[in-house]
Design a protein that fits this description.
The chain is an alpha/beta fold. It has eight helices and eleven strands. The chain is 26% helix and 33% strand.
Length: 242
């Protein structure tokens, strides 16, 4: 897709994002983030429609956000409590905010929307500059299924029902660790396409990026309830400390 920038995904999906990704129980996510913030300020990279930021703020944590998509942030602003959260519009790799934070976090695979290793390394470095002494950086992301990467492409059926079909069509670049994927939703009213570009990193590479930024791995779990991370884990919750 030509002219695909940091804001493209959010701008194209904002009107249906909350419908497509219906909020699940966020209690475990909010509880862990609140614990890690230890009463200090928190910054969410890719704040989106406020799925996590709004309940985290309601728990008593001062939350700030960054997002490249004005349309996504507008959706957050329309929700109760969403208009009280300060948000910077921009590329999350730049972390273009003022001050220091006890916690910076990025969830739901959003870190991988930084489409190059350079951008991911830059994000780590900029996050480190905004962490107070002892502050933490949390990343929640999938662990790539390398068997699918080696195959080069994949088409999977995600939903089949009376009035809709959802397909995910994906191509992989194993050399660059890049994924180009288009979600296809077919309903009686038409076809909706949403494209995403991701650059995945396995745990050892994330740890190296952290070390380059002066951060140290403190924890790695498979979920926010602190389930142990194993070789079979499909997701990782990494906590790096300044």
């Amino acid at each position: 897709m030509e002219n695909f920038g940091p804001e493209t995904y959010g701008e194209r999906v904002a009107d249906v994002y909350d419908e497509w990704y219906k909020p699940v129980d966020t209690a475990a996510e909010v509880a862990l983030l609140r614990e890690l913030a230890q009463g200090g300020r928190a910054l969410e990279l890719g704040i989106g429609t406020g799925r996590i930021a709004i309940p985290l703020a309601a728990s008593g944590i001062e939350v700030h956000g960054i997002d490249a998509s004005p349309a996504m942030v507008e959706r957050m602003r329309a929700k109760p409590g969403g208009d009280a959260i300060p948000v910077t519009i921009g590329d999350m790799a730049d972390v273009a905010v003022e001050g220091e934070f006890a916690l910076v976090f990025v969830v739901f695979n959003t870190f991988f929307q930084l489409y190059s290793q350079e951008a991911q390394v830059r994000c780590f470095a900029n996050v480190a500059r905004h962490l107070q002494p002892g502050g933490r950086f949390l990343i929640h992301a999938f662990v790539a299924d390398t068997s699918r990467v080696e195959a080069g492409q994949d088409v999977s059926v995600k939903e089949v029902s009376l009035d809709r079909v959802r397909l995910d069509a994906t191509v992989y670049d194993p050399a660059e660790q890049r994924i180009d994927t288009t979600q296809v939703r077919i309903t009686e009213s038409g076809i909706r396409l949403v494209h995403a570009k991701l650059r995945f990193a396995l745990p050892p590479e994330l740890d190296l990026m952290a070390r380059l930024a002066g951060l140290t791995l403190e924890h790695r779990w498979s979920w926010f309830d602190k389930l142990p991370f194993t070789g079979a884990s499909a997701a990782q919750v990494c906590v790096y400390r300044a």
